[in-house]
């Protein structure tokens, strides 16, 4: 059983309430033992003194672009970016070409990920056929093919009756619908947050109410149907408060926030900086603070990257024409450490929970824990290491990040997936 013995690290595993110095024995793809001291007995020893030993991170929201836009990203390049960032499990959004709206496309994504053999990739199916918002997909076929949730991400399910029926349908399978909460009429033509900066730059804005009105509608529909709604990439203070109140009423709702919405505001757009063009847009400081508070008090369940790579020729166009989205898998952990842990807003144990156990629970996958007997998805992190973001060295094909040139704290040093070292 030899395997690998990770010795002397600070194990932080919220799923098992473990936070202290332990040895971790990995063998045959599983966590075999965790104890204060474990004899090597032939296992290869990794000295983790001074490092954190964490469960592999779980990303509930990433765009891997394959099939259809392999010029932007492939499952292989996306998975390689994921493990570099400490993510051993990734949920792939369905806005591919064709969309993941049939069991065959979902199985293709999962099979390609197994062929690559880096991170586990779980497909998220489309709520509507072609993500067109007109006709529901075959939910049973998609869940049977391995989809962990359904979403039309990139588009909202705008029609209220269709969303009601979708919630009723998904309830049969006890799985969430991930809503891109944005009223398409309120947001139409907008390219950044509506506020002083958009007015100064002469850019059409997207008000926070474009998100919060859709959140309010879908909370009402979830309350009506008993279905499970999950809101992607929250950005506004109004949305956080609506969800906080709904959770108190017992509505079945979960939600996520991205590292870039926690760290940045509309000011990052600066002089038409397309690397800061994301959807939903970066909002003002009051919104950012509300997101952090929502994360701290449990209103926001988890952190997800919304990794959305694009080609250079697309992203380096004028601001109006450039697509929304940035590459985030390789910077997510360090951005969160810099934004939340370093200033004392969140302890490591809480950050790890938001990036591992919580998203794993929402996705319903066996990941995000170092429990004995669990798959040996383990990452080692130097919590004090500093590094400078250089997108030209990303494993992702997408080389656009608003954090380019910034020095961040917290570096992933080694990554094990099912016991095999992959980074």
Kindly describe this structure:
This protein is α/β, with parallel strands linked by helices and 423 residues long. The chain is built from 14 helices and 18 strands. It has 2 domains: 96 residues, Roll (Urease, subunit C, domain 1); 308 residues, TIM Barrel (Alpha-Beta Barrel), CATH 3.20.20. Helix content is 30%, strand content 22%. Helix 7 packs parallel to helix 8. The longest helix has 17 residues. The mean pLDDT is 98.
Strand content: 15-25%
How many beta strands in the DSSP annotation?
A: 18
Low-confidence stretches: none
Distinct helical segment count:
14
In the CATH scheme, the class of the largest domain would be Alpha Beta
In CATH terms, the superfamily of the largest domain is: Metal-dependent hydrolases
Taking the alpha carbons of the first and last residues, their distance comes to: 22 Å
Shape: globular
Percent helix: 25-40%
* Secondary-structure content class: alpha/beta
Mean pLDDT: 98
Domain tally: 2
Radius of gyration over alpha carbons? 21 Å
């Amino acid at each position: 059983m030899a395997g690998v013995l990770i010795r002397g690290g600070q194990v932080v595993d919220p799923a098992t309430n473990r936070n202290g110095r332990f040895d971790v024995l990995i063998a045959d793809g599983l966590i075999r033992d965790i104890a204060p001291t474990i004899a090597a007995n032939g296992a290869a020893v990794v000295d983790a003194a001074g490092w954190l030993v964490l469960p592999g991170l779980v990303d509930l929201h990433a765009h891997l672009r394959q099939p259809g836009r392999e010029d932007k990203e492939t499952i292989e390049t996306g998975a390689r970016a994921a493990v570099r960032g400490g993510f051993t499990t990734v949920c792939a959004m369905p806005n591919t070409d064709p969309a993941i709206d049939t069991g065959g496309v979902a199985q293709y994504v999962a099979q390609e990920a197994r062929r690559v053999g880096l991170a586990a990739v779980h497909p998220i199916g489309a709520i509507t056929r072609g993500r067109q918002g007109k006709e529901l997909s075959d939910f049973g076929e998609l869940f049977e093919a391995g989809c962990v949730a359904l979403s039309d991400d990139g588009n909202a399910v705008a029609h209220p009756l269709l969303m009601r029926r979708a919630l009723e349908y998904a309830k049969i399978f006890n799985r969430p619908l991930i809503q891109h909460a944005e009223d398409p009429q309120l947001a139409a033509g907008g390219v950044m947050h509506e506020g002083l900066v958009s007015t100064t730059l002469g850019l059409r804005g997207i008000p926070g109410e474009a998100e919060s009105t859709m959140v309010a509608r879908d909370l009402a529909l979830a309350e009506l149907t008993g279905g499970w709604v999950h809101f992607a990439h929250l950005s506004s203070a109004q949305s956080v408060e609506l969800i906080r109140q709904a959770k108190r009423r017992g509505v079945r709702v979960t939600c996520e926030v991205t590292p870039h919405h926690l760290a940045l505001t509309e000011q990052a757009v600066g002089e038409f900086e397309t690397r800061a063009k994301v959807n939903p847009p970066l909002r003002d400081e009051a919104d950012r603070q509300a997101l952090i508070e929502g994360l701290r008090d449990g209103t926001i369940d988890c952190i997800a990257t919304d990794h959305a790579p694009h080609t250079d020729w697309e992203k380096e166009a004028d601001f109006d024409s450039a697509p929304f989205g940035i590459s985030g898998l390789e910077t997510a952990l360090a951005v969160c450490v810099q934004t939340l842990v370093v200033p004392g807003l969140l302890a490591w144990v809480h950050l790890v929970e938001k990036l591992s156990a919580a998203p794993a629970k929402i996705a319903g996958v066996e990941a995000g824990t170092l429990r004995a007997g669990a798959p040996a998805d383990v990452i080692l992190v130097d919590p004090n290491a500093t590094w400078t973001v250089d997108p030209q060295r990303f494993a992702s094909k997408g080389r656009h990040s608003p954090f380019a040139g910034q020095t961040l704290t917290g570096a992933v040093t080694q990554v094990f997936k099912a016991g095999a070292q992959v980074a």
